């Protein structure tokens, strides 16, 4: 069975990356979302084991020591990390595995998985990003300012990614992401086994 593609998706807080991923998985059946662990508190409507594994800071730090994460990062005073066993299992089963992680963690994933597809989700403008953060009403003014300042810092690392998707409309962003993955799955370096088999077959003539 052909191995799936590991897709690393990052973006500013408020860029809409979570919504894009949800719609992608809803529309297509060849994706699997890796659920991250975090020490932040659940937002309204979030469920443990669905959006995140919500754990205490002490438990998270124990898992770090045990080597349970393939990456982890500290973001706005909270830890976020990716459990490794699930990711490898899904890739080997042929699923395209999505990791929604911060820039710090994305860099660590690229070091470990050189063929990971790196995608950054961005808003059409800084002003629209600010408005989206305000509209979701999950943070106060001070927290929104922190997230915008963090976005300013993160913008310097966008060039480290393979592709950028501007989230102007949800439907267009979802289709752009799926098209990127489909193209990546057709890359020569991801189809070497097929090429070898084809060559062997042709050499019989």
From TrEMBL:
- Its catalytic activity? GMP + ATP = GDP + ADP
Tell me the compartments it is located in. Answer: Cytoplasm
One GO term in the molecular function aspect is: GMP kinase activity
Q: What is its EC number?
A: 2.7.4.8
Write the record's keywords in alphabetical order, separated by commas: ATP-binding, Cytoplasm, Kinase, Nucleotide-binding, Transferase
Sorted alphabetically, which PROSITE patterns does this protein's record hold?
GUANYLATE_KINASE_1 (PS00856), GUANYLATE_KINASE_2 (PS50052)
Guanylate kinase-like domain residues: 4-182
Record-stated family: Belongs to the guanylate kinase family.
Q: Which PANTHER family match?
A: GUANYLATE KINASE (PTHR23117:SF13), GUANYLATE KINASE-RELATED (PTHR23117)
Q: What job does this protein perform?
A: Essential for recycling GMP and indirectly, cGMP.
Q: What is this protein called?
A: Guanylate kinase
The scientific name of the source species is Johnsonella ignava ATCC 51276
Native organism taxonomy: Bacteria, Bacillati, Bacillota, Clostridia, Lachnospirales
């Amino acid at each position: 069975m052909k191995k799936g593609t590991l897709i690393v998706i990052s973006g500013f807080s408020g860029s809409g990356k979570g919504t894009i991923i949800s719609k992608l998985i809803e529309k297509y059946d060849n994706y699997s979302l890796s659920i991250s662990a975090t020490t932040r508190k659940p937002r309204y409507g979030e469920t443990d084991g669905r959006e995140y594994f919500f754990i205490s800071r002490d438990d998270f730090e124990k898992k770090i020591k045990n080597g349970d994460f393939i990456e982890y990062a500290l973001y706005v005073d909270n830890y976020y990390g990716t459990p490794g066993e699930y990711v490898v299992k899904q890739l080997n089963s042929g699923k395209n595995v999505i990791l929604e992680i911060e820039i710090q963690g994305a860099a660590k994933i690229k070091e470990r998985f050189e063929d990971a597809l790196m995608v950054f989700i961005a808003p059409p403008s800084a002003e629209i990003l600010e408005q989206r953060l305000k509209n979701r009403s999950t943070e106060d003014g001070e927290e929104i300012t922190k997230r915008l300042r963090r976005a300013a810092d993160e913008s310097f690392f966008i060039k480290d990614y393979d592709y950028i998707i501007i989230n102007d409309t949800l439907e267009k962003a979802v289709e752009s992401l799926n098209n990127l993955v489909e193209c990546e799955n057709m890359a020569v370096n991801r189809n070497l086994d097929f090429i070898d088999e084809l060559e062997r077959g042709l050499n019989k003539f």
